[in-house]
Structures are given as structure tokens and as C-alpha cells.
Design a protein that fits this description.
This protein is α+β, with helices and mostly antiparallel strands and about 100 residues long. It contains 2 helices and 5 strands; from the N terminus they run ααβββββ. Helices cover about 35% and strands about 25% of the residues.
Length: about 100
Amino acid sequence: MQNQSLWQSQVASMLLLLGLTVGTAAQQDPKDIIAAELRLQGFTCDKPKSATRDTSASIPNETVWIVACENATYRATLVPNMAAHVEVIDNGNGSSTSR
């Protein structure tokens, strides 16, 4: 009986930890997630201000986001299991580039 109680306690603890982990991940802001992807690809976005989904440019499995950072504004096309296609819309001096 004591073993069953110990087992139930361990399972309850694991479920609680799993719930806390999932809850924390669900609270992340899209601007922070996409800014991290931009940085992984070599773009500067240390202080993301906003991320807005561009529904008119998005298609199934290709979600387009406009991300405003302190230094520049980017259009990021996110495709599952692939690197994002990133276009610099405004880098503070009026020019734009894409990768």
C-alpha cells in the first residue's frame, strides 16, 4: 500500500512539473520567439517591440510575420522544419534586403 502511495505521489509531481513547463512555454510572446529565430539566422533584433501576423501574405504552412525591433523591421516567413525567409523591410536608413 505504501508503494502505491509513493508511486501516486511521484506521478502527481511529474504531472505538476509537466503542467508548469507547458504553461510557461504557452505564455511566450510571438515577438520573442520570432526575434530568437532572427538572431539564429544572423539578424540583429535584441529588443523586439512587436510581431504582427500578415494574414494576407500567409498561406498554409507558410506564416508571415512583421517583426519590429529597436534597430530594424523584418518580414519573416516561417515554414515548419526550415529556416525562416527573412526580408529587412526597414533598417533605419531606408534600404531593404532579404535572405
